[in-house]
Amino acid sequence: MNKEEREIIFNHPKTELILWHNSTLEFNYSIAINWAMDILMKGIELDSILMLSSFSENVRREEIQPYVKSCIFEIGLKEKNENYSLKTEIHYFMYLITQKIQIRENLNKIYSICLENDFLEELLKFYSLYHAWYNLDNDIFNYYYEGVDLKNIESTVIKEAKDWIEKNNNK
Description:
Layout: H1 3-11, H2 15-19, H3 29-41, H4 47-53, H5 61-74, H6 86-98, H7 103-116, H8 124-137, H9 153-168
């Protein structure tokens, strides 16, 4: 793989997500398959990427995981936090939000993590944003998060997710 190909892979918006595949229980492996297809369409034909791109969208984690690991190894990167932790699970959903991938669904997952962990303090803004969005959608007065409306709720969630990642990046 030459320098230009490495740059294409490293700068692909989904490469960072792929590195988290083993750190979250809910990783969406169709992201990895689509990533491999994108890389192929850019003319980069590594064996591991060819194999990964050949999977169907509804593949089981156990079947595809070794192929994702192989891709990461072949392109010279390292997986993020190989063992599951709550922090990496949260980071994964926050990162998806910052990439504008299923913002509301991932906010819902963060909300659930907050509830399941006794109202985890670092996620209380997202608890409030979840309820604010619900109220706004149902024409109920929003008293959960000041200053948001239907026009800016998504951008506010994205901003807060970026802030959370920045604050928690090295923890």
